[in-house]
Design goal:
It is a single chain. By secondary structure, this protein is an alpha/beta fold. It folds into two domains: 153 residues, Medium-chain alcohol dehydrogenases, catalytic domain (Quinone Oxidoreductase, Chain A, domain 1, Alpha-Beta Complex), CATH 3.90.180.10; 149 residues, NAD(P)-binding Rossmann-like Domain (Rossmann fold, 3-Layer(aba) Sandwich), CATH 3.40.50. The radius of gyration is 20 Å and the shape is globular. It binds NADP nicotinamide-adenine-dinucleotide phosphate.
């Protein structure tokens, strides 16, 4: 049984978009197993835009990672050694923190068993995990859509966005989605998204005006920055905005900056509700049951971009921020 783990460390702080040399794959010793602990071999790792936040020095929910510190993130693995009655060898578990590595030792209480009957293991990093829950909470609890309303979803072909679009269709909404890639736009069309905007080539405001001349009722914001400003300008009176993320700003040096046209929220009576999924932890069971049901029935289409090999994790993360993924980006270890 291996006594070491291969884990990514932060070699230096990225300046702008991360590059390969910002990360280092190191081999570190694993502690011996104590009573109540398990050793887990990761099978699937997640790369997510939020990981860019802890590579900065800005303080927030995502605390800065020290230079030389280990990267963390979501992972699903298999218990390969156990000194816990709760988790036998062979059990599959999720950890929100032990990604970016192949093996780890943890207290059994720090990992959550996953039910492989509800969906494939990788789904616990996507539709049955962070991205699915985030999409669900932001749409169903924050925006509370009504049939016939128009919603604009940015980052629409990503892990969160694709689920938002499909949940909004289920509620009878008209969906406008933005993406930076024509192939992703075609896929959104297959999901029933009525209108797509390529933010790299189109004029965002003009396209929103063309698709929704009377304005949009709701905006699900995955991108922030210029998307959020265009959405604010395109909202109807009393429009609702769910502020989920700001990927456009993550490489900018200040992901915490706000939109320049916030005064329009006063003029139009807009409701801007920021949220992070941790705030909805108490409703996880409810969200999980609905999403797992939709997954099983085929009502929810899931796309994954799978990258093979632990050693390619940093590259996958770099590529994710550049838009290389359709749906959820996962690493198969
Ligand atoms: N609040 C929460 O609790 C919570 C939880 C999870 C995620 N989030 C946030 O939700 C958002 C989506 O996350 P995700 O996991 O679903 O990621 P994702 O959308 O699967 O992946 C990131 C995508 O962002 C797009 N992108 C990159 N740079 C961009 C730019 N400058 N302008 C517009 N789009 C850009 C790319 O798509 P294109 O090819 O279309 O450009 C890329 O594929 C992120 O902002 C994330 O931080 C929030």
């Amino acid at each position: 049984m291996s006594k070491t783990s291969r884990v990514f460390q932060l070699a230096r702080r990225p300046d702008g978009a991360p590059v390969a040399d910002d990360f280092k794959l190191a081999e570190v010793p694993l502690p011996p197993l104590e009573a109540g602990q398990v050793k887990v071999r990761n099978r699937w790792l997640s790369v997510d835009p939020y990981m860019r936040l802890s590579l900065t020095t800005l303080k927030g929910v995502h605390a800065p990672t020290e230079i030389g510190g280990e990267l963390d993130g979501g992972a699903v693995g298999e218990v390969v050694e156990s000194r816990s009655d709760r988790l036998p060898v062979g059990a599959h578990v999720f950890s929100p923190l032990k990604g970016w590595r192949d093996l780890y030792v943890a207290d059994a209480g720090q990992v959550a068993p996953v039910d492989a009957d509800l969906g494939p293991l990788s789904a616990y990093l996507g539709v049955l995990g962070l991205s699915g829950m985030t999409a669900y909470a932001g749409l169903e609890f924050v925006l509370q859509p009504k049939a016939g309303e128009t919603i604009f979803v940015s980052g629409a072909a990503g892990a969160v966005g694709m689920v938002v679009c499909q949940l909004a269709k289920r509620r009878g909404c008209r969906v406008i989605g933005s993406t930076g890639d024509p192939a992703k736009a075609r896929l959104l069309g297959e999901l029933g998204v009525e209108a797509t905007i390529n933010y790299r080539t189109d004029d965002l405001r003009a396209r929103l005006r063309a698709f929704a001349p009377d304005g949009i009722d709701m905006y699900f914001d995955n991108v922030g920055g210029s998307h959020l400003e265009a959405a604010i300008d395109s909202m109807k009176i009393f429009g609702r905005l769910a502020l989920c993320g700001a990927v456009e700003l993550y490489n900018s040096g200040n992901y915490r900056q706000g939109p320049g046209n916030l005064f329009a929220a006063i003029e139009k009576g807009l409701t801007l509700t920021g949220f992070n999924i941790g705030l909805f932890a108490a409703r996880r069971g409810e969200m999980m049951a609905d999403l797992a049901g939709m997954l099983k029935s085929g009502e929810l289409r899931v796309e994954e971009t799978i990258v093979d090999g632990l050693e390619n994790t940093a590259k996958a993360f770099i590529d994710l921020l550049a838009g290389a993924n359709t749906g959820k980006m996962v690493i198969r270890v």
